[in-house]
Automatic annotation (TrEMBL):
<keyword id="KW-0812">Transmembrane</keyword>
<dbReference type="InterPro" id="IPR003740">
    <property type="entry name" value="YitT"/>
</dbReference>
<keyword id="KW-1133">Transmembrane helix</keyword>
<keyword id="KW-0472">Membrane</keyword>
<feature type="transmembrane region" description="Helical">
    <location>
        <begin position="174"/>
        <end position="191"/>
    </location>
</feature>
<feature type="transmembrane region" description="Helical">
    <location>
        <begin position="146"/>
        <end position="168"/>
    </location>
</feature>
<feature type="transmembrane region" description="Helical">
    <location>
        <begin position="16"/>
        <end position="37"/>
    </location>
</feature>
<feature type="transmembrane region" description="Helical">
    <location>
        <begin position="82"/>
        <end position="102"/>
    </location>
</feature>
<keyword id="KW-1003">Cell membrane</keyword>
<dbReference type="InterPro" id="IPR051461">
    <property type="entry name" value="UPF0750_membrane"/>
</dbReference>
<feature type="transmembrane region" description="Helical">
    <location>
        <begin position="43"/>
        <end position="70"/>
    </location>
</feature>
<protein>
    <submittedName>
        <fullName>YitT family protein</fullName>
    </submittedName>
</protein>
<feature type="transmembrane region" description="Helical">
    <location>
        <begin position="108"/>
        <end position="126"/>
    </location>
</feature>
<dbReference type="Pfam" id="PF02588">
    <property type="entry name" value="YitT_membrane"/>
</dbReference>
């Protein structure tokens, strides 16, 4: 049996730049429609809505505590790539809004586009052995330590997040946001499979 081929550093670089650019643009579509999403990015969006702070700085700061856990549980390479990915999204989301104006007229369309665009970005990031940090790292750790299913841990966090969103956003926007989360997770569930993608 041959060793699994690995991406070169140049391939990793283009994959992470592409993935983070798509995710940053997805966040631009999401926030342009006043929607929210799940996971750590969703928490950063809610904080940004509630405080008026920029998404990028909030997202970067929220992820800082998770790097220690990632370093010990998932290794230095994964942690460094995740730090790079989070930093790129934080920076890109800061200036992308000044370069591209996105004013969605229909929240349902915005939700679906967000799910598709961000799903493509996350696939690229995951396939180059990185993540967007946060809740996903904790969920993985709890699964490894206690046998808790990572998907259920993340779902539990998202349910709490969306419940809080009802206190901040109009109910119809929260419901459209759920559509975006469903599209995003469906794309990941269908396409992020090691039996369909060999290079790591």
């Amino acid at each position: 049996m041959t060793d699994t081929p690995r991406h070169t550093r140049i391939e990793d670089a283009q994959g992470l730049v592409f993935g983070t650019a798509m995710c940053a643009f997805g966040i631009l579509v999401l926030t342009g429609a006043g929607l929210v999403t799940g996971q750590t990015a969703g928490l950063a969006v809610l904080i940004a809505y509630a405080t008026g702070w920029g998404f990028g700085p909030v997202f970067f700061v929220i992820n800082i505590p998770f790097y220690v856990l990632a370093w010990h549980r998932l290794g230095p390479e994964f942690t460094i790539k995740t730090l790079i990915s989070v930093t790129l999204i934080s920076v890109m989301s800061g200036f992308m809004g000044d370069l591209v104006t996105v004013i969605p007229q229909n929240p349902a369309v915005a939700a679906v586009l967000f799910g598709m665009i961000t799903g493509a970005g996350l696939l690229a990031i995951f396939r180059h052995r990185a993540s967007l940090g946060g809740v996903g790292i904790v969920a993985y750790d709890l699964q490894e330590r206690f046998g808790w299913r990572a998907g259920l841990v993340q779902l539990g966090f998202d349910l709490v997040l969306f419940a809080v969103a009802f206190l901040i956003l109009p109910p119809d926007l929260v419901l459209w946001s759920l559509l975006g989360a469903i599209v995003l997770n469906a794309i990941l569930a269908i396409n992020h499979r090691r039996d369909h993608y060999i290079a790591t």
